[in-house]
Amino acid sequence: AGTETAQSLTPGEGGPRTRNTKSLKNSHRPSQAIGSADADSRSDIEDTKIPYTREAQDAQVSVGAFDRPTSPISSGFVLEKVAVIGHSHTGALLDGYKKKALQGNTPFELAYLLLLRSDMPYMIKKDGKWQYNPEIDTEIKIFLEREKPSLVILMLEGQQSAISGLTPPVQAYDFNLPDEHSAQIDNKALVPYEIVIENTVLSYRLIDEFLARIRPTIVSPVVALGPPPLIGDNDALLGLVQSSPTFRDAVSKYGLTSPEWRRKIWRVHLAALRRIYEGNGIPCLDPPETALDPGGLLKRELASDSIHGNPDYGAMLVDQISGFLSDRRKGTEK
User: Fold this and answer.
1) What distance, in Å, lies between the first and last C-alpha atoms of the chain?
2) Which residues contact 111 (CB under 8 A, 6 or more apart)?
3) Which of 7, 76, 102, 180 has the smallest C-beta neighbourhood within 10 Å, fewest atoms?
4) pLDDT averaged over consecutive 10-residue blocks of the chain (334 residues)?
5) Could you tell me if residue 192 is left (phi over 0), alpha (psi between -120 and 50 degrees) or otherwise beta?
6) What pTM did the predictor assign?
7) Which residues contact 136 (CB under 8 A, 6 or more apart)?
8) Cα distances (angstroms) measured from residue 111 to each of 50, 61, 63, 120
């Protein structure tokens, strides 16, 4: 998809060799079931286009690969190629990879297909129902056949956990995670965990339908990366949301949740995504533990904006993928 272009950076810069120069814009549907577990999710937030893309990502191209890296790690053998397909959280991985490339420390080749585009929405409405654009299926097939990766990484959506956890639900409720009993609310408003996660899974149902369509196309090993949590520092988070009119207005109108609530909502969203991915035969990795603070939320110094990780966080994802590749090689050798 897209025309071939002749754009490259000098070797060692870790820059992309582009295949499509369409810039990323906020071209997507309004988020579905933003409240997930909130039966009465707020329409004024739900009907607003969510600014997934950071300003830095607007200059990214939609499909490409980084120049073949020169790295001490690659000395003596050919690097494996990783292909990542995803939405805005993919930006942290690309930034982290470029940072490592500048340091001469890239453990694999990286190709990418970004789904946030100005030339083609990743969601369309057909017969009154939202679905992933079928044109993406074709692009993924062409992309994977061309790149022939050793590993495919999926980083689909993920904004739901941030949106659900940022402001309090319309009707106060609480729940216990399976391995915790931390609910701090009257038992009359205590919702069973299975109800919470079933409703959360529903908020990702379009991913489930999409994976069922594209799974036969992915012949390489594939793994998904879960989205990072919000940060725990309320003052810092209030500062970060100022860059997003949508989040700023929502927090101004409804208030900000506690760090503990944000952590629990993120945990249930990770569990919901894992159910969907694993139901399609795809393992799902949590964010690196070293990226989390003692409260189980993203460290402040790893946040790029209110919901995305920065290049340092992306470098951690590169290391996580490298570890996954290494473990897979060891398993093959046994």
Assistant:
1) 40
2) 64, 65, 66, 81, 82, 83, 84, 143, 147, 149
3) 76
4) 26 34 28 29 34 36 61 54 95 95 91 89 92 95 95 94 90 90 73 95 95 96 97 96 90 94 96 97 97 97 95 98 91 60
5) beta
6) 0.79
7) 115, 120, 122, 210, 214
8) 26, 12, 8, 20
